[in-house]
Amino acid sequence: MVQLITQGIKVSVETKFEGSIIKDQVVHYAFKYTVNIQNQSNDVVQLKSRFWKIKDSLNHDESVNGQGVIGKKPVLQPGESHMYSSGCLLQSPLGAMRGHYDMVNFTSSKKFRVYIPTFKLSAPFALN
């Protein structure tokens, strides 16, 4: 698990290799990631949008922008957490993801950015 705290918001990520599939006649490697966002600040905050940078060992890069996470824009009271799982497909068995969440602080009405630590995606067979 990797973790990072930005302005009182702790982001923790765990990953799991799910297997391989053939898509468009190319082998792809499926990974699941579970993110826990914990509000360790004294303010109420809301996650508004996300940005991901996905890279595999064949130097394929992909950027993903979107509103919320899995269709939600969670509001977190102090001490609350929001956990969700998602996934990605890579064309190689090794890769990494990183990114950020754009959030708003309800106390100050200010927007701020929370960074998602870089986490590795690796199929167990690729590490031997």
TrEMBL record:
The record's section on Pfam families has: DUF525
Domain ApaG, chain residue ranges per copy: 3-128
Renumbered to this chain, the signal peptide range is none
InterPro entries reported in the protein's UniProt record: ApaG_domain, ApaG_sf
Among PROSITE patterns, the record links this protein to: APAG (PS51087)
User: What protein is this chain from?
Assistant: Co2+/Mg2+ efflux protein ApaG
Look up and give the organism this protein is from: Patiriisocius hiemis
- Identify the gene encoding this protein: apaG
